[in-house]
Amino acid sequence: MTDNQGTTRIRVAFIGTGGIANAHAEALQQQPGVELAVAIDIDASRSEAFAAKWGITGTAASLKEAADGGGLDLVAICTPPSSHFPLALEALALGLHAVIEKPPALSLSQMRELEAAEAASTGSLSCIFQHRFGSGAQRLLALQRSGALGRQLVGTCNTLWFRDQPYFDVPWRGLWDVEGGGPTMGHGIHQFDLLLHLWGPWSEVTAFAGKLARKTDTEDASAAVVRFESGAIATIINSVISPRETSYLRLDYENATVELDHLYGYADHNWTVTPAPGQDAVVGLWAQGEDTESGHPAQYAAIVQSLQGGAPAPVSITDAYATMELAAAIYASSVSGTTVARGQIDEASPFFTRMDGHLEPWKQEEALSA
Prior knowledge:
By secondary structure, the protein is of the alpha/beta class. Helices cover about 35% and strands about 25% of the residues.
């Protein structure tokens, strides 16, 4: 369907009407040619309240009910992590495009199944990794490609957040088969996805993880050293037990240090560029261009533009696989005590079907110490 300006109109359904769905609705409301069509929730009172808040005309108890009769184009999957995979499969089976909140699935095997289902469908999948879409990340990519920064050398990628015990007492949190993991999967994944987006393929990782302060089946902190195919080395720390919260990225190149210090999203003022001696021109190059904040609006602008133009939406399941593979490798390395190479976690590995390798390592530690 097209509107009066000839723009392809996209009708959107939201599955799940909790907190994160509001970020999706707000972002989509800003996009031209988008209609917020249906709110879907098993709790009718929640879907009705969400629909009233965002001016959505329809509600439904399931995607099948919402899709009956056609008319939908895009589904925003805003439910707890364990339901992302089956709902994405259902959307693809109906020929719909879908946007999946992080993590897109609970395991690498599910990611591969989603790839296969997408290949057989007229629909497509896009994963929410919104830090890729701020102007700072876009500008940094352009400077890298121009050669102005020189070679990638050393990086730091920290997600140091704080979540108290009541946060983990919610029934679906902190469980491997429901949430998929702890801060490595559910919190730091945004920041190290940005690192991988900027610095390209990783080659191997050595990691430690543990349950240090919270009563949960998963880790509450992890630390990793990652080598990239370029030869660059970076450290990655993911924590939900750090009272002074920050999300911090430091990238050292031959010609400059580039830093990003923020919490849940960034604008240009969150970036700092420090030139190497004799490389002051880099600062002038950085100052050029528009200031676009990272976040759901920036990613949805790219998604909607792609779909209206008939092109695949950015951050496909294949694009996101490298990020999920690094998360799996951090867990595998920390549990096995070995260095894990990219591609090593295949169908024969227990870490392919569950991030903890079905070993429940920190639950076992708790039992042993009881």
